[in-house]
C-alpha cells in the first residue's frame, strides 16, 4: 500500500492526509535508514519486553507514530491478520518506508493532530520521536485519544543528552556540542527526564518508566564509530570549527582503540494504559 493511503480493511481509521515535508534531518546528507536500523538494534531487547507488556501480541490495530523510514514497521511480531500503521510528518521518510514496509498503511500527518477517530488502536508507540516534537504533551495526549481504553501507549526511546557520559574526559565537549546542536535543530535534548511527567499529565494509567541499560560488546567497532561520526559531523557542521571536530575524532579513535572509550546517553522509556 502506498504513502498516505489508508487500509480499506479498516474504514474506522481516518483519512486526513497532511502532505507536509518533514524535518531538516531528511536533507539527503545521511543514510538515515541505516542509522535508524542501528538505533533499532540498540533497543531490540527492551522493545521485546515492552511490546509484550503493552499488548503487541494480541493487538489488532497498531500505530507506529513517527515511523520515519520504517525501521521498526517491518519486523513487528504481531498476530496474523493484525494491521500495523505508520505515520510521519516527513513525506520523504515515508517514501522510504513504503519500500521497506510494503504492507503498512502509511499516512503523512502531524502526531500532534492525529487523523484518526478516538479509540481505534490497541497499541500506539513511538521510537526516538518525542524529542523532535515542539509539543510532546499534545502528541502523547493524541496517542492516548486514538488508543482504546485499556490499550497501550508506549514511548520506546527518548534520550537525555544532559546526562551523557563521555570518557576519557577530554571528549566531554562532544556531548555539549551535540546537545546544543539538537537544540538549534528544534529538538529537546533532555526529553528523557521529562517523559514520565508527560505521560502522567496526558492521563495515562499504570505508567511504568525506566532507562535503558548500555552494553558494549565491541567498543572499537569501526562500523559503529563511523556511523556515530557521520551523525556527529552532520549535526556539528557549521556549528563547531572543523579542526576542533577533527581533534575530537582523533581522540575518540585512540580511546576506542585502547578500549577506554565510554559513550552513554541515558535513554528513557515509558508506557501506560489509555
Ligand atoms: C529520529 S526519527 C525516528 C524514526 C523512527 N521512529 C525510528 O526509530 O526509526 C524521528 C521521526 O519523527 C518524525 N516526526 C517528528 N515530529 C513529528 C510529528 N510532529 N509528527 C509525526 N512525526 C514526527 C520525523 O519526521 C522522523 O521521521
Structure description:
- By secondary structure, the protein is of the alpha/beta class.
- The protein has a domain at 15-160 and 188-215 and 266-273: Vaccinia Virus protein VP39 (Rossmann fold), CATH 3.40.50.150.
- The chain is 36% helix and 19% strand.
- The protein is built from eight helices and nine strands.
- The chain has helices at 32-42, 44-54, 91-100, 136-145, 172-184, 191-201, 222-236, 242-258, and strands at residues 61-65, 83-88, 106-108, 121-126, 147-159, 165-167, 205-211, 262-264, 267-273.
- The strands form two sheets. It has a seven-stranded mixed β-sheet with strand order 3-2-1-4-5-9-7, sandwiched between helices. Strands 6-8 form a two-stranded antiparallel sheet.
- It is globular and about 50 Å long.
- The chain binds S-adenosylmethionine (SAM).
- The site of S-adenosylmethionine has 21 residues, from helix 1.
Fold blueprint:
Elements: H1 32-42, H2 44-54, E1 61-65, E2 83-88, H3 91-100, E3 106-108, E4 121-126, H4 136-145, E5 147-159, E6 165-167, H5 172-184, H6 191-201, E7 205-211, H7 222-236, H8 242-258, E8 262-264, E9 267-273
Parallel strand pairs: 1-2, 1-4, 2-3, 4-5
Antiparallel strand pairs: 5-9, 6-8, 7-9
The structure holds S-adenosylmethionine (SAM).
